[in-house]
Amino acid sequence: MPEQKLATDVYFDLNDGHKIPALGLGTVPPEDKSAVRDQVITAVRSGYRHIDAAWYYGTEKYVGEALKVLFAEGYKREDLFITTKVWPSFHHSPEKSLDESLSELGIDYVDLFLQHWPVCLSGDENGLPAGPKNEDGSLKYDDDPVDGVKFLETYSKLEDLKATNKVRSIGVSNYSIPKLRKLLQNAKIIPVVNQIEYHPQLPQQDLVDFCAKHKILIEAYSPVGSTGAPVLKLPYINELAEKYGVSVNEIANAYHILQGRITLPRSSNLERIKTNVRLPQLTKDELDKLYQIGVENPTRYITDPWGYGLGFKWWKGDILSKEFD
Ligand code: NDP
């Protein structure tokens, strides 16, 4: 048997000169938020060097506790890659959001600061509530989610933060092509990444190509389709796992890493975190066949209400998505 390559050994170049580890650990909370502490510790001890955090997840305190333990064991801050994000209800004050995150994480800079969504929700000076509602139960916006351009002001504040010692790189998340077009007309700094839902059931070659043209790397979130891991039930993923003698999770990660995309799996199962680090060398034909699964039957699993109107393909009920269907 040839020696297995490891996903934890792969790094990609960002467009601003920094490097990013291809495999990152997601930190969306399980039922018990404090469990994230052991997840992060387990991941780093298993070779992960990339943690995907966010103010919105409410788990940064536990990521911070994990980092404290890891630093005491001799892991160095400069060897880890830590991301945080500014939430739409904090769109007016990304620096305040960042400062809160840094304080919870117990570090003095993040490697990557993302705009979580190109949307402006109506939060107070502390970004609260995170999901503001009108009386009729609809989301309370500070700007029109379809035609508004206020989201560009948030990114422009991220650009200012890149000039400080609190942030190494800046990027975006949940940007569709129409939103990216608007951004690129205004931006002084090209985002280093666009973090989006991506897996074999959600083909997005046009968005990937658009980002590649502008040297924006794709970060794949929900790489197994989030809770319940529906993507892992695909027969072809299971077939490949058997062929390569790896787990279905490792096939899902390899699908991205072998094509130059960062993958951000999450798990509350420590054994899963520990063992899912191999990188099976899928062939081009196999990668294409995985892609075709989504072309034939596209499925998006994350359809949070604040994503409505952003111009994403296959966003259930979104009028804008019709132009693509
Ligand atoms: P994933 O696609 O990684 O799915 C995680 C879920 O799949 C967990 O419930 C996990 O269960 C389950 N799972 C994984 N492997 C298996 C398996 N072999 N068998 C059964 N169940 C399995 O989910 P996320 O949606 O959390 O995405 C990952 C990360 O991406 C997030 O944590 C976050 O950091 C980021 N993200 C970013 C977003 C954004 O808007 N920018 C939106 C969503 C996510 P178990 O815990 O038992 O392993």
Question: What do these coordinates show?
Answer:
- It is a single chain.
- With 325 residues, the chain is α/β, with parallel strands linked by helices.
- It has one domain (7-296): TIM Barrel, CATH 3.20.20.100.
- Helices cover 33% and strands 13% of the residues.
- It has 10 helices and 10 strands.
- The strands form 2 sheets. The chain has an 8-stranded parallel sheet. The protein has a two-stranded antiparallel ribbon with strand order 1-2.
- α2 (60-72) crosses α3 (94-105) and α7 packs across α8.
- The radius of gyration is 19 Å and the shape is globular.
- Bound molecules: NADPH dihydro-nicotinamide-adenine-dinucleotide phosphate.
- NADPH dihydro-nicotinamide-adenine-dinucleotide phosphate (NDP) is lined by residues 26-28, 30, 52, 116, 173-174, 195, 221-227, 229, 232, 248-249, 264-269, 272, 302.
Short description:
Helices cover 33% and strands 13% of the residues. It is α/β, with parallel strands linked by helices and 325 residues long.
